[in-house]
Amino acid sequence: MGGLSIWHWLVVGVIVLLLFGKGRFSDMMGDVAKGIKSFKKGMAEEDDAAKPAPRLQAQPPLEPNADRNLQPMQDDRPAQ
């Protein structure tokens, strides 16, 4: 009862073709195919461009804060 038979899918397909028309549906499928080809091409280019990056130059360590009179933040919320 919960599954859809082949007849249900055929009816849905016919309704989709009636709503979108044959030309629009084929245009959509062509756009999907172009998108897939573009994605595959981009993935292939990414593999070619995936060369190891040059190492970062060593940076000097951070110096500690020069202010020796640091205090923790004071709670400025109003008392309840």
Describe the structure concisely for a colleague.
Helix content is 55%, strand content 0%.
Descriptive account of the structure:
It contains one helix and no strands. The model has no long low-confidence stretch (mean pLDDT 79). By secondary structure, the protein is mainly alpha-helical.
Q: Tell me, rounded to a whole number, the average pLDDT.
A: 79
Instruction: Give me the number of helical elements.
Output: 1
Shape: elongated
Structural class: mainly alpha
Give the N-to-C terminal Cα separation. Answer: 62 Å
Describe the largest sheet. Answer: none
Please estimate the helix content. Answer: 55-70%
Determine Rg (CA atoms, Å): 31 Å
Oligomer: single chain
In total, the number of strands is: 0
Along the chain, the helix and strand elements come as H
β content, as a range?
Answer: under 5%
- Residue ranges: pLDDT <50 for 5 or more in a row? none
Summary tags:
single chain; elongated; 1 helix
SSE arrangement:
Blueprint lengths: L5 H44 L31
